[in-house]
Amino acid sequence: MKKLLALAALIGPSLLAAEPLRVVTSIPDHAALVRAIGGGEVETESIIKGNRDVHAVELLPSFMVKVGRADLYVKVGMDLDLWAQSIIDGSRNGKLIVVDASAGVEKLEVPTFKVDASYGDLHIYGNPHYWLDPGTIRAQGEAIFAGLVRVRPASAATFRANLDAYVQKVDAALKGWQARLAPFAGTQVISFHTSWPYFAQRFGIQVVDFMEPKPGVSPTPTHIAALTERLKGGQVKAILMESYFDDRVPQMLSRTTGVPLVKVPVLVGAAPGVDDQLALFEAITTSLATALGGGH
Ligand SMILES: [Zn+2]
């Protein structure tokens, strides 16, 4: 026994260092960010995978098992992934550290009035689709960094260096994406869901209406009729659509009005080749610029 303990003391630290830190995230975009910051010291997995709606997730027992084994959970926050709390509670993991990636993000569309059910799926903490602005990656990364350091303080310097290098890379790419959309500053578009206020602010696009009459409510014939009239007016240059929605109604609207439909992924992994955050913004800005440029 004594011998074993001595052996453990001897090899303990190196074994501990080799053991990966386990992180579960709600969305793949945060898993990508965790990988960028944690490097080889983390193993991370997202609950949502692929081209899915982030607002609603079917709770599978396997999610609780995953989170039961995890060191850290990264939530989107702002009430978007309320389902994450059910997974966390169900995991019965007393030592789990939970991080809210929205903590340091400057929030948009925070209601100044009392929200009730008549507003549809409106979030009381503001619009939660902040990850569609690459300019918020620093703030998201700081929250994740703090969580990783709580689990493994000894690696703080490595995590800090990784985060800084990653943000630098994103910021450099952001200049290119902004240049790509700069010719379309002030351009009016409509979107399917209200996923775009952060993106629109960053890139100077104006989202003037939505296919959903209220957030989370499917388009109604009356609303589509009103949108058709609006699009025929010629001011709106594109219909921006999150790729997880059924595109039959937007296609029809595009055909009858001649306004191009731009179907884009809003999550890492939601389209072929969109394997990280850089690829996601590359895909969105390219699709939008191509549609708005009308082939120029
Ligand atoms: Zn939403």
Write structural notes for this entry:
By secondary structure, the chain is an alpha/beta fold. It has 2 domains: 2-174, 3-Layer(aba) Sandwich (Rossmann fold), CATH 3.40.50.1980; 181-293, 3-Layer(aba) Sandwich (Rossmann fold), CATH 3.40.50. It is 45% helix and 13% strand. The strands form 2 sheets. A 4-stranded parallel β-sheet has the order 2-1-3-4, with helices on one face. Strands 6-5-7-8 form a 4-stranded parallel β-sheet, with helices on both faces. Strand 1 (21-25), helix 2 and strand 2 (42-46) form a beta-alpha-beta unit. Helix 2 crosses helix 5 (137-151) and helix 5 packs antiparallel against helix 6. The chain starts with a helix and ends with a helix. Zinc ion binds at residues 55, 129, 193, 195, 215.
In short:
45% of the residues lie in helices and 13% in strands.
The CATH superfamily of the largest domain appears as Nitrogenase molybdenum iron protein domain
- Derived structural class: alpha/beta
Largest sheet: 4 strands, parallel
As a whole number of angstroms, the C-alpha radius of gyration is: 21 Å
Mean pLDDT: 93
Looking at the overall shape, the CATH architecture of the largest domain is 3-Layer(aba) Sandwich
Total of domains: 2
